[in-house]
Design brief:
alpha/beta, 2 domains, six-stranded mixed β-sheet, four-stranded antiparallel β-sheet, binds adenosine-5'-diphosphate, binds magnesium ion
């Protein structure tokens, strides 16, 4: 339904998107995951025809978005990062205006506006001014305007960004309800978002596709990399040897504290909680356990992990993994 073929976008010297290719099948919800600045918004603007790529092309429902923009746009609904609302217009006026601009037949405008307001649950604010709406309602009005011309394809740029937890759940439910008769691409920089909503995930980092996978596989891969951080008052090599012997431990990295306490990073086999065993291994030898905590992997570290491990489990068409970037890990690990 959507094909992105070798798309590159340069802003002067900045390469925002670097030879990205992926496909989205009809009826699929694809998560487009990447940290800030990864190139998500740029890619979405290209798919929606709001901006031409420097190289490559995007095809929506069989129409090249540059060569047949009217056909492509007719089939595409776009929720930009910041929904383009007119602050002084009432919600229903705004949607009526957008419906006309989008070429909805006059006789159908009212029915369509009422329909999308019901679908996105904004009927209760129909008479409020757009500028007075909460962030959650603004996002929903943005989604409503994207749905007005009944497009098959929905491109949603960080639809849950800035929402509170309750609104996030509501928005997810809304998106899931739209699935099936729509093909959806949803961008996010939050990992749990994709596992909740999407069937497949394209991960981009620094403008390149680093993995294409299901959320299940992704979560398993990330869980496998979960690590504990320990600070131990004891002799470095002995501490390292003792922790290595703990059942379930798959890796131990020692930062010797030059005479002081040593810091250690311990990885365990998939999903296994080894905290008790680690603590008793330290304490039973008479060393001081100064700190023991799980290390939260930042999205950057997850990308690093995903790009350094074997990616044979990923689907065909995946870009070759980038080499690890030395020096990145140290800065973010203990933040
Ligand atoms: N109009 C622009 N001019 C110059 N650089 C831009 C412009 N828009 C985005 N960029 C740069 O392109 C990169 C990707 O940005 P963007 O697509 O917005 O990423 P994301 O949506 O994943 O946060 C960033 O480095 C950003 O600074
Ligand atoms: Mg963005």
């Amino acid at each position: 339904m959507i094909e992105v073929q070798h798309v590159t976008k340069r802003y002067g010297p900045v390469t925002a998107v670097d030879d990205i290719s992926f496909r989205v099948e009809r009826g699929e919800i694809l998560g487009f995951l990447g940290p800030n600045g990864a190139g998500k918004t740029t890619t979405m603007r290209i798919i929606t025809g709001y901006m031409p790529p420097t190289e490559g092309r995007a095809i929506v429902a069989g129409f090249d978005v540059l060569e047949q923009p009217i056909e492509a746009k007719r089939r595409t609904g776009y929720l930009p990062e910041t929904p383009p609302l007119y602050p002084d217009m009432r919600v229903s006026e705004y949607l009526t205006f957008v419906a006309k601009v989008k070429g909805v037949a006059r006789s159908q405008v009212k029915a369509r506006v009422d329909g999308v307001m019901e679908r996105t649950r904004i009927a209760d604010v129909a008479r409020r001014q757009c500028g007075q709406l909460s962030k959650g309602y603004r996002q929903r009005v943005g989604l409503a305007q994207a749905l007005l011309h009944d497009p098959e394809v929905l491109i949603l740029d960080e639809p849950t960004a800035g929402l509170d937890p309750k609104q996030i759940i509501e928005t997810r439910q809304l998106i899931k309800a739209l699935a099936g008769d729509h093909t959806i691409v949803l961008s996010t920089h939050i990992l749990p978002e994709v596992s909740q909503t999407c069937q497949r995930v394209v991960i981009i980092n620094k403008g390149r596709v680093v993995a294409v996978d299901t959320p299940e596989n992704l979560t398993a891969r990330v869980r496998g990399s979960e690590a504990m951080y320990l600070q131990v008052d004891g002799p470095g090599p002995d501490v390292s040897a003792a922790l290595t012997q703990v059942p379930g431990v798959s890796g131990v990295t020692l930062n010797d504290g030059a005479g002081g306490p040593v810091s250690v990073e311990v990885t365990s086999e998939d999903g296994r909680d080894v905290r008790r065993e680690l603590a008793s291994a330290v304490v039973s030898r008479g060393w001081g356990l100064l700190e023991l905590r799980p290390m939260r992997l930042s999205l950057e570290e997850i990308f690093l992990h995903l790009t350094t491990e074997d990616t044979t489990a990923a689907e065909p068409g995946v870009a070759p993994p980038e080499p690890p970037q030395p020096g990145q890990e140290e800065e973010t690990t203990h933040a």
